[in-house]
Design brief:
With 494 residues, this protein is of the alpha/beta class. The chain has helices at 15-20, 23-31, 37-55, 63-79, 121-128, 171-178, 195-201, 242-249, 290-305, 321-332, 337-340, 352-360, 368-381, 387-405, 434-441, 471-485; strands at 58-61, 90-94, 132-137, 149-150, 154-155, 157-158, 161-165, 184-189, 204-207, 231-236, 276-279, 309-311, 409-413, 446-453, 459-465. It has a single domain (15-485), classed as Alpha-Beta Complex (Amidase signature (AS) enzymes), CATH 3.90.1300. Helix 9 links the parallel strand 11 and strand 12 (309-311). The longest helix has 19 residues, at 37-55.
Length: 494
């Protein structure tokens, strides 16, 4: 039966319209009295109820509090006066971010009773802007793997095919936004954790420039200089939401030592005729599916038809993307995997090999992927395999790309080697996140936008990179590609 809704004004949007509108379209409709915040929230809660059983994306519900906040938002609208930009708009938040009073486990069994005592800075900013948090979404254990699964909440499925992964570590966000449960969500990305789920689920996602958005209030969080590589950012239905959401999230805070002030440009002021486009459909090291290469080439041609100039660029360092990322992240981090996975327990660190042996017989509280990565990470950290050279290479590449891309250049690159794999299939190609990870340590902004579907009906996407601080340029290109290729389509799990 088709869902419908009405408003007191009689000029309301249908439920289908509410489930397809962007966050800021919903906010405008609420302010104009075309629909109430209560109706917007209730419609999205009903959609979550409908799809979440198949997805397991929203793992902690905040429905009753959201209903009360929606009523309070309606009261503010009736009272008149200046209203915050997202008043009454529902959203979800990755479980890594503290939401006061809600579980804050990071997917670790040892933290299953831990609750956040306050909001993360980014959550605080969204709520101050009027957004209503309806729940938190699933993650991999400790954010260590690109499939969303942990021993606290279980596994999240892809809304286009529940036999496939939604990606990670913001896999719950990607899945519930793709299925229409919320117009946007808050994710984080230290190696592809916004961009990979966005690509797998067919939504838009933006990894901001390094140091642009504060990270305080996340668990797990990066430490030391690695805070520059961890980026909080939006996952959304529509590319038009990305820049206004980024303006809400961005900017320094005295409680966070890493975030700095950066001028934020306007995507509307980016002329496609001034844009220079560098398309690289593959790194030359990992096999990239034809559909993903075609998405990059189609994106370049679309921008060219809109007036952009295509340029050639050879970046051989992309072949060593994962090694450069690993070396720079290892140098910057103050905490290893064995310490992270012990958080919340009575241990200072776990013994990865011992836990791995226990996991084989089902006696460990840790997931197999987290332990395997922990063992490998601990081993690699002790090997003298040219780390200093890789770090120097990464820093030189950052300088080169910042200069090459400048104020009006974008690099188009696959966000992953193929559309969403089946559950567990990522074990065959564990190094493919190199397509996203390298850009975290380069601190470049990256936007993922849907480009259509492959022959199996799985979303394809392109990743758009720009120079540090030029987030508006990658978003402008995403807006152009979304307009030409249709953008997000609501998924109904099957």
């Amino acid at each position: 039966m088709q869902e419908t809704t009405s408003t007191n004004s009689g000029r309301g949007l249908s439920a289908d319209g509410l489930l397809e509108a962007s966050a800021f379209e919903l906010a405008a409709a609420i302010r104009a009295g075309e629909v109430s915040a209560t109706e917007v929230v209730e419609t999205h809660l009903a959609r979550i109820e409908r799809v979440n059983g198949a997805l397991n994306a929203v793992v902690v519900r905040r429905f009753e509090e959201a209903r009360r906040e929606a009523k309070a938002a309606d009261k503010r609208v009736r009272a008149g006066g200046e209203l915050p930009p997202l008043l009454g708009v529902p959203c979800t938040v990755k479980e890594f971010f503290g939401v006061a009073g809600l579980p804050h486990t990071g997917g670790l069994v040892a933290r299953r009773h831990t609750r956040a005592t306050e909001d993360a800075i980014t959550v605080e900013r969204l709520r101050a802007a009027g957004a209503i948090v309806v729940g938190t979404t699933n993650v991999p254990e400790g954010g260590i793997w690109l499939e969303t699964f942990n021993a606290v909440y279980g596994r999240t499925n892809n809304p286009w095919d529940t036999a496939r992964t939604s990606g990670g570590s913001s896999g719950g966000e990607g899945a519930i936004v793709a299925a229409g449960g919320v117009p946007f969500g808050l994710g984080s990305d230290v190696g592809g954790s916004i961009r990979i789920p966005s690509a797998f689920c067919g939504v838009v996602g933006h990894k901001p420039s390094g140091r642009l958005v504060p990270n305080l209030g996340q668990f797990p969080s990066a430490t030391g200089e690695a805070l520059a590589y961890l980026c909080a950012g939006p996952i959304a239905r529509r590319a038009s939401d990305l820049m206004p959401l980024l303006r809400i999230l961005a900017g320094p805070d005295p409680r966070d030592s890493a975030a700095v002030a950066m001028p934020l440009g306007d995507p509307a002021e980016v002329s496609m005729r001034d844009l220079e486009v560098y398309a690289i459909p593959e790194s030359g090291r990992f096999r990239v599916a034809d559909a993903m290469k075609q998405a990059v080439l189609d994106g370049a041609r679309t921008l060219e038809r809109r007036g952009a100039r295509l340029r050639e660029l050879d970046v051989p360092e992309l072949r060593r993307g994962l090694e450069i990322w690993g070396a720079m992240l290892e140098e910057a981090s103050e905490q290893g995997y064995e310490e992270l996975l012990a958080t919340g327990s009575d241990q200072a660190r776990i013994a990865p090999l011992a836990e791995l042996a226990k996991a084989v017989v089902g006696r460990s509280n840790h997931t197999l992927p987290a332990l395997v990565v922990g063992v490998l990470g601990a081993a690699v950290a002790k090997l003298p395999f040219g780390t200093k050279k890789l770090i120097e290479e990464g820093r030189a590449l950052k300088r080169r790309l910042d200069t090459q891309l400048g104020d009006r250049g974008v690099l188009l690159y696959p966000p992953y080697t193929r559309p969403a794999p089946r559950h567990h299939d990522v074990w065959r190609t564990p190094f493919d996140p190199a397509h996203t990870a390298i850009f975290n340590v380069l601190e470049l902004p990256g936007t993922v936008v849907p480009m259509g579907f492959d022959a199996r009906g799985l979303p394809t996407s392109v990743q758009i990179l720009g120079a540090q601080g030029r987030d508006h340029v990658t978003i402008a290109a995403a807006l152009a590609l979304e307009a030409a290729h249709g953008g997000w389509t609501m998924a109904t799990p099957r």
